[in-house]
Specification:
The structure holds two protein chains of two kinds. Chain A is mostly beta strands. Chain A is about 0% helix and about 50% strand. In chain A, the strands form two sheets. In chain A, strands 2, 4, 5, 6, 9, 10 and 11 form a seven-stranded mixed beta sheet that branches. The termini of chain A are far apart. Chain B is an all-beta fold. In chain B, strands 2, 5, 6, 10, 11 and 12 form a six-stranded mixed beta sheet that branches. Chain B has a four-stranded antiparallel beta sheet with strand order 3-9-8-7, with no helix packed on it. In chain B, strands 1-4 form a two-stranded antiparallel sheet. Classes of the chains: A mainly beta, B mainly beta.
Chain lengths: ~110, ~120
């Protein structure tokens, strides 16, 4: 059963702590993406990766970091430098960045207090 | 530059009546356009996509959208709303000019279906 998994579904952290969100795909897609969703603002691109060991900043990369050591995995770390980390985070993948269609995971809701 | 405007933040319809969710786009290139649906606390699911083929695009669950270049619109319609259609809908334009396949999302339209 192919798809994208994100874990955990809900995550709670204290302010000042780094936290890593997991994203795994078994679709054999080269490209992966991280988005942040806030109420009334649609989705904003944080980071994307076109291929293993390569990634690029999106529109709102400050306070976030990623790695792409394996094709299947694209974890996102929300660092203590992110001023307003509470949000819904969505991971997506596509066959390639030249492919139009992205497939989304179920999301992780992060709450930082 | 690419951008998307969803003209209504909230649409409410009665079950069995038509649905119209409006979207206008701005693009410097020949755009690819999408509609995604998101149910509460879930990921996004692709409803339909336009990629320069037929201007009337049919999607899943009875939805369709028409690409109108002269009006820079890509409105989503369904002849008869079902309770299960209640969700958030996003109109999206794709930018492949940077080689990054960035998707530019509208701010979303929340559809409420009244029994």
């Amino acid at each position: 059963d192919g798809g994208i998994t994100q874990s955990p579904k809900y995550l709670f952290r204290k302010e000042g702590q780094n936290v890593t969100l997991s994203c795994e795909q078994n679709l054999n897609h080269d490209a992966m993406y991280w988005y942040r969703q806030d109420p009334g603002q649609g989705l904003r691109l944080i980071y994307y990766s076109q291929i293993v060991n390569d990634f690029q900043k999106g529109d709102i990369a400050e306070g976030y970091s990623v790695s792409r050591e394996k094709k299947e995995s694209f974890p996102l770390t929300v660092t203590s430098a992110q001023k307003n980390p509470t949000a819904f985070y969505l991971c997506a993948s596509s066959i390639a960045t030249s492919s139009y269609e992205q497939y989304f995971g179920p999301g992780t809701r992060l709450t930082v207090t | 530059a690419q951008s998307v405007t969803q003209l209504d933040s909230h649409v409410s319809v009665s079950e069995g009546t038509p649905v119209l969710l409006r979207c206008n786009y701005s693009s410097s290139y020949s755009p690819s356009l999408f509609w995604y649906v998101q149910h509460p606390n879930k990921g996004l699911q692709l409803l339909l996509k336009y990629t320069s083929a037929a201007t009337l695009v049919k999607g899943i669950n009875g939805f369709e959208a028409e690409f109108k270049k002269s009006e820079t619109s890509f409105h989503l319609t369904k002849p008869s709303a079902h309770m299960s259609d209640a969700a958030e809908y996003f109109c999206v334009v794709s930018d492949v000019s940077t080689g990054a396949n960035n998707l530019f999302f509208g701010t979303g339209t929340r559809l409420t279906v009244i029994p």
